[in-house]
Structure formats: C-alpha cells, structure tokens
Amino acid sequence: xxxxxxxxxxxxxxxxxxxxxxxxxxRGAGHSPGRLAWLRLRADRTALASGAALVLFxxxxxxxxxxxxxxxxxxxxxFQDRLDGFGLPLGRAGGVSGEHFFGLEPRLGRxxxxxxxxxxxxxxxxxxxxxxxxxxxxxxLGTLAGYLGGWLDAVVTWITDLTxxxxxxxxxxxxxxxxxxxxxxxxxxxxxxxGVGVLIVIFAVxxxxxxxxxxxxxxxxxxxxxxxxxxxxxxxxxxHMLFRELLPNLRAPILVSFSLTVPQFVTGEAALSFIGxxxxxxxxxxxxxxxxxxxxxxxxxxFVLFPGVVIxxxxxxxxxxxxxxxxxxxxxxxx
Amino acid sequence: MTDGPAxxxxxxxxxxxxxxxxxxxxxxxxxxxxxxxxxxxxETLGLVGxxxxxxxxxxxxxxxxxxxTGGSIEFAGHDLTHAGRRHLRPLRGQLQIIFQDPYxxxxxxxxxxRIIAMPLRVNRIDPPGGTRARVRELMERVGLNPxxxxxYPHEFSGGQRQRVGIARALATEPRLxxxxxxxxxxxxxxxxxxxxxxxxxxxxxGLALVLISHDLAVVRHLCQRVAVxxxxxxxxxxxxxxxxxxxxxxxxxxxxxxxxxxxQFGPAGRLRLTGEAPTPLDPPSGCRFRxxxxxxxxRCAVEEPALVRRDGGGQATACHFPxxxxxxxxxxxxxx
Amino acid sequence: MxxxxxxxxxxxxxxxxxxxxxxxxxxxxxxxxGRTLGVVGESGSGKSATALALLGLHDLRRATVTGQxxxxxxxxxxxxxxxxxxxxxxxxxxxxxxxxxxxxxxxxVGRQIAEAYRVxxxxxxxxxxxxxxxxxxxxxxxxxxDxxxxxYPHEFSGGMRQRVMIAMALVNDPALLIADEPTTxxxxxxxxQILELLTDLRAEFRTAIVLITHDLGVVxxxxxxxxxxxxxxxxxxxxxxxxxxxxxxxxxxxxxxxxxxxxxxxxxxxxxxxxxxxxLTELPTGCVFHPRCRHAGALGDRCRTEPPELRVVGTGxxxxxxxxxxxxxxxxxxxxxxxxxxxx
Lengths: 335, 336, 344
Known about the structure:
The complex is a heterotrimer of chains A (about 325), B (about 325) and C (about 350).
Chain A: H1 33-42, H2 45-62, H3 64-71, H4 112-148, H5 150-165, H6 168-184, H7 192-223, H8 226-233, H9 238-274, H10 286-293, H11 301-329
Helix pairs in contact in A: 1-11, 2-4, 2-11, 3-4, 4-5, 4-7, 4-9, 4-11, 5-7, 6-7, 7-9, 9-10, 9-11, 10-11
Chain B: E1 13-24, E2 27-39, E3 44-48, H1 55-62, E4 70-75, E5 78-79, H2 85-92, E6 95-98, H3 112-122, H4 131-141, H5 158-170, E7 176-180, H6 188-205, E8 208-213, H7 216-222, E9 225-230, E10 233-239, H8 240-245, H9 250-258, H10 298-302, E11 308-309, E12 316-317
Parallel strand pairs in B: 3-8, 3-9, 6-7, 7-8
Antiparallel strand pairs in B: 1-2, 1-4, 4-5, 9-10, 10-12, 11-12
Helix pairs in contact in B: 3-4, 3-5, 4-5
Chain C: E1 5-16, E2 19-31, E3 36-40, H1 47-54, E4 64-71, E5 74-75, H2 81-87, E6 92-95, H3 99-102, H4 109-120, H5 126-139, H6 145-148, H7 158-170, E7 176-180, H8 188-205, E8 208-213, H9 216-222, E9 225-230, E10 233-239, H10 240-245, H11 250-258, H12 302-305, E11 311-312, E12 319-320, H13 326-343
Parallel strand pairs in C: 3-8, 3-9, 6-7, 7-8
Antiparallel strand pairs in C: 1-2, 1-4, 4-5, 9-10, 10-12, 11-12
C-alpha cells in the first residue's frame, strides 16, 4: 500500500475511539435503513398498541375454527328457543350471556360472537388478498412505466386514467350478478368462495391506480439520482437496475401504500355487502351483519353495536399502524 | 484487463466536434457545441467554466450516460459515439465516473461494500483474491477502514461518502476516470483531503483523469492540462502554467481575476466582467463571449473565432484579439 | 459610536432523539453601522443558527435560544413575535443563498419588492411606491428597471435574482443586513459583482452587514472583521487582514493552509486538517478542536479537559480561544513555514 499515513488522508474515524466521530448512532456495525425504521417503530407507543391489536385480530381470524371448537357454537347454528315471539333475543342487551358472549341475532337466532370471528376472517382475507394483488399490479406497472418511460409510460398512464374514470359503484353493482349468471345460471347455488373471489378482483381492478402512480413517481425521482447513473455508467442491465438499485428503495412506499389500502378494502367489503352486492348470505361478513341489523335498530340495538365496534377497531388499528409505519420509514414526514 | 488496439500510439481519449443539443420548447439547447480535445494515458485534464458552459454534459457524454448529437468520442481505439450497451460493456470497466453529490451518488439501501463492488458484479469480473479482498484493498486505498464494509452510507460523513464513490470508480481498474465536481459539495477542511487523495491515485495508479470543476484553484492542483469552456465551447486549452500564468483569452483572464484570493483584501482586480452568460438556447452570433468581452469589436459579432494554436506551443485560443496586453485603445461595445 | 448590533453569550440548542444538539455555544460580538462582519465556518459550525437567531427566526417550540441580541438598542431574545416582526424588514433584513426559493414564482418581481416596502410604509401611494422600487432596482444594478418591474422571477438570471433580493432587503433602509451565503449559488464572475455591490451599498447607506459564508476568499474580499466559528463556538475573531494574514488559532491556520489557491506550488500536496468536524450532540471534552489539532498533545491533558476561553491577543481586538501560549505558537508556525519551504 502506497498510502503513507503521515501525509495520507486520515482513515475514516468511525467508531475508532470516537475522536472525530462521524454523525449519529454508534451502536454496533451496519444499521441498514430498514433496521433503523424497525428501531423507530419499536420506540413508538401507538405503533406498539395498534400493532398488538392487529396481531390479535389476525390470530383470531386464523384460529376461527379453533375458537369455534372451544366456544362450542358454529356460525350457522340457530338458537330459536332463545328468541321471543317477535323473533327478538330473550334477555338483556340482545341476549348477552355466558353462553353467547355478544348475544344472538334476531329472527335467525345465530350467535353474534362466532359470526364476528368468522366475519373477521372473511374481511381480513378479502382485504389482504386484494391489497396484495393491488400492490403487485401497481408496483409492476408503476416501475415499468417510470423506469422505461416512452410509449409504455404513455400506455400505463392512459390505462390508469381510464380505470379512474370507470364508475366503481356501477361496476360493483353490475358485475357480480352478471358473472354469477354467466357461470352458475339462474338456479344453481353459488359457492361462497366465488363471491369472495369476485370481490377481490373488483377491488384489485380498481385499487391498483394509486399504488402505480405513487411508484411511478418514486421511480422517476430515483432514476435521476446519481447512484442510478453510476450503475448505468458501469454497464448495468435492466435486471440489475430494477432489482438491485431501484426495488430496495421502493420498499418503504410499497409498504406504506399497502398499509393504506388494507383498511380501504375492509370498509369497502363492508360497504358492498351492506348494499347487497358483496358476499352471499352464508358467508359471515361485517357488512351483511350491519345491513341486517339496521332493521332492528330500535328493537335490538346491541345487534348493530357489536359488529360496528369491531369493524371500527379493526380499521382504526390498521390506519394507526400504517401511519406509524410511514413515520418510521421516513422520519421527515413525522410531526 | 483487455488492451485496446491503439494502446501505445494514439491518445487514450480523442474527442472530435463533440456536440449535444437538448430539444426543448423554443429550439435546441446547445449544451455542448463542437468540442475537440484529447487525453493521453495517465494525463489529467481539467474542464473549467461557469454554470451552463456544458462541462457536466461533456462529462456525461464521455462515459456515455448521454448519447452525442454529433461529433465523435474515441476511447482506446474504440468508437464510443453511438455504441449500444452491449458494445460499450467491455469498455465500461476502463472508463468510470465520480459524481458531485456524495449523498445522491450512493444507493442508501446498500452497505458500502456492495456499493464498491457494484461495477465488478455488473461486469461479472472476479478479481484475483475475490471480490471481498478487492473491496478491502480499495477501501484502504481511499483511506476508509475496511472493517466498515457492511455499514450503510448514512453512517458516513460527506467526505467519507465521496471516498466510497471514488473506491467504486476504481473497482474495475479503469484507465480513465471522469470526476464531475468531486469536491464542491464538501466542507472546506475536507476538500483538501479528497484533492490529495485524487492526486495520489493519479500518481500511483497512472490513471488518466478528466476533472470537471468550476473551481480554478482545485483544477490547478490536480490537472496538467486545462480547457476553459464558455457556452458549450472550449475558448482556451493548454498546459497548466500557460493557462494560469499566460492566459490569452479575455474570458480566462477574467475568470482568474474573479477568484477571491485569501491573501488579497478588498474588491477583486480590475478585470471585472459585466453581466452573466447568455442562455445556450440562443447563443450570440460570432464569438459567444463577445456580449461580455471588454475587447469585442465588430468582427467578433460576425465571425466565430476558431481554436488555434499560438506560436507552435500546446496552448490554443479561440479569440480574434488574444493576448495578455492591456485593453485595446478604443473598445467597441458589442450590441447585445 | 455604539454598535448597532450587539450579541452577548448567544446559545441555541435543539433537543433531538440523540441528545441535545448545541448549535451555538456562548457567542458574543458586535457590529457597527457601515462595517461588514464576516462569519466563517463549515457546515455545523453554527454560523447559520447564529444568523437565524439575529432575526428571531428560530422556531421556539423546537429550539432553545438564550443570551442577548440587541439591535438598535432593543433587546430581541424573549420578545413576543409581533414585536420582532416590526423590527424585521424595517431595521433588519436578510438575503439568502438561494434567491429563487425566496421569491414567489407567480408574482411580478416589482410587486414583491413593493410589498416589502408597503409593509413598513402603510401610507405610501402607488406611484410613490413604484418610484421607490424602481430607484432601488436601478441602484442594485438591474438594467432597465422600469421594464423589468413587471417581469417574473424565472425571467431573471441567478445573479439578477440575487440583486432583486438585495433590492427587496434594502428598500426599507435597514440598519442591519444579514447575508447568508449570498454568493454561494453564483458563478465566480457574478460573485465578484455581487460582493462589490454589497461593499458599495454598505458605504452608501451606512448599513451594518453580517456576511455568513464558508469561503475565506469571500471574507477577504468583502468583510472588515471576521469571526471564525467551529462546532458552535468562536475560535478566533479580529480584523480581517489580521486574522487571515496572521492566523493564530490552529483551526484558522489549518483551514487557510488547506484551501487550494491560485498561488503557491501546484505540485505540492495540500495540507488538510485531519478528521472531520464533530457531531454537535457528542462534542469532545475540553477544546472542541483538540481531536483534530496538531498541537493538542503539547500541553499535556489541558486541551482535552479544559475548554479555552476567548481572550484578547496582541492589538486591535484580535481574540483567540486556544491554550497554546502565543510565543510557542509563533515558534511552531515558523517551523512549519521552513518545513514547507524545504519541501518545495
């Protein structure tokens, strides 16, 4: 080595006795930006609380059959003997008791607690699946449009505008019955999975535009950064560019947009089921429960209260966690 | 390393009539408009000028981040002017670039070891002893602690980040490095460290260096030859001593006079330029400098001066009325 | 004459996640009308935080500012916002590094200067205001001011925009002008023009100017006095010729030796200051410069443990914060010069 230490540049002083210490944070080696975000997230109380709530919701949804087993009541079991002559549950607060934690549905006499557990399962499955699909479509199209530019960008932008121009409600109202008719005819019974699938597809078709636009903008900004030019000047091909240089820098926006779309789809599923185009009667779902409960707003208010509170808590937890995640990933946006 | 055919004989880099026009509304921006110069192996050339003179565009053309509109770039005997990615690939390793901004030029999501190894990986080069050993050696060479190869850019100071950028440029053992304002984003006390490092690398590795800078003092410490640019053109080129001690072009002289010198107090010298450089969208007719030139005469508005050698030396000047003598008796103000 | 601006023991700190960031630590100085004080330092030296404190521009929810800033006999620190605002623009004005971001892109340049004027001259009529603005634009060297009055910022070049900023700053005849890196974004030939303009205006209007810069050359060209700041503290202070010709502090002389220049031997290596400036949340003990100082070992542990005070050396108000005795410093400097001479 020809560098004479006397005249040479002083070797980087990181951690070496802390003399002319470089900026910030000297805990061990190699804090990646992702790890720093994790540390920030762990120090955030809102993130911890909402994260814990989310984990709880997820566990409940996953363990629904197990809960059914220990609870001893299935989502379709009816308890007509616990209803009065008008079909309203006997007892206080909609029939809340040690046996039926959240009481019973009027008329059918099904257990609200276990239906909520399964409703959560449906809701989270639809929302997560739709969010994953949305992110994949959005990231692929956004990245290609932003990185390659030119006619591809023009086409993607055009499709985005077209999608945004489509009336969501009209399509959501018309499409499921049409598809059902096409695949099952007038009389056949339609499996619950079909309704769920259609819902997910509708959400994905309408949901990807936001992610695609965000990612496209990010990629265009990144493309101008000098580290991308450095890779290009070294002869990097498109594969290296996209997967080594760009994608690692897109993790934060992808996570954030994912966390923003999930609650959107939770409420979306509830809203569609509420107006009667979402899921079929058999599938336990928040939207359908609230829809049915409206009839009993006067006579059995507990029926609207329980699903309402659970969906509110779920959406709030996802949103709070999403905000905390955004702040942790990009500390500048905080406060 | 593969040796080019015209290795020993000709210059390493030969640029002829290099032109880059950017299409914008209102006609092309003539960012670079006909440059001729050469860089021999192991030689350092400085490109100086003010903002908008086209020096950074030139740097990006040389490493083919941009494609020239006209003219030619020949590197180690290969014509790079319109070469595609596949054709350029074997040459990329020999021709590298260092950027100005030590924050934007490093991928924030990669540890510096991976950043430095990027050119090796992209070109599928497996250096003797392995990539890891090569990264260690490079980090030591640029004055970084090799133990820190798994740290991320945000954990380094500006000067250290610039060293990472330099190590990356050196990874493939290039023969020519283009350095675009490598110290201007750094603090004063750090600039000297990086200037010394570049000098040492040039000396020890026999690198050819094209240094792009607005700072005449930095160029003076790093470059054997200097080209002064104005509005997309070279107005004067020559050896360091000629440019700094015997400048012939009025612009070179004004530029040198405008640099504040620490040992000099009160307002700068008499050779004050008025106004600012016109836009490269619509450069003046004839000599492009005439609108600010204290010597401009009618001829300057009509006829564009060629870059011609004076008295057989290495110094060439593009001026109808060159020379170090005082202003001519009756300066005629050119119409703007 | 009483100095127009007097700063006593100014301290600015920000609480951060990594601890308290001490941006300015006990800075005192004074500027008289018609004089320019250059404040030099690198990033993190506290020069910009000092400038913002002079205008009361720190966000007091995030920053703690203590000490005294007296402008024209009035105390600024701790005064309510409304009172400070009256001072700003009227008595104190500021120009920034980037004139483009300081100008509103959609408003005509003349109107923006006129607005600055009207804020403090409520009674001024349209015609009078326009006359005043055009006169000011002319004074700062904007050609054809009556035509350019109605143009937008994007129609001006970088140097012309900075002239607009200066016109806007001076339209109310402020007694104190704070210029934060006013020429850093400009080309050298334009920088020379702007510095000359500032020097002329100072003489003409008897304005006190605080010129903040990282460039020692700019200070030499445009300032009368200079403060050298390092890690939030003043390390050396005095008349500009005195400080730049015979720098006493190892940081100042190190900085001067490390700057590439148009004179001297171009083949010799530059002599950089080793290391980099400290983190402001983890300042070194004792003298903040000691980890980078070549002389720190000469006095045993003293530089490492005891912060040096800013004290007068020699004549003409030259002040210095260094433990090394003057004679010893002179001897070492002489040694350096001979060594450098031999090396050439």
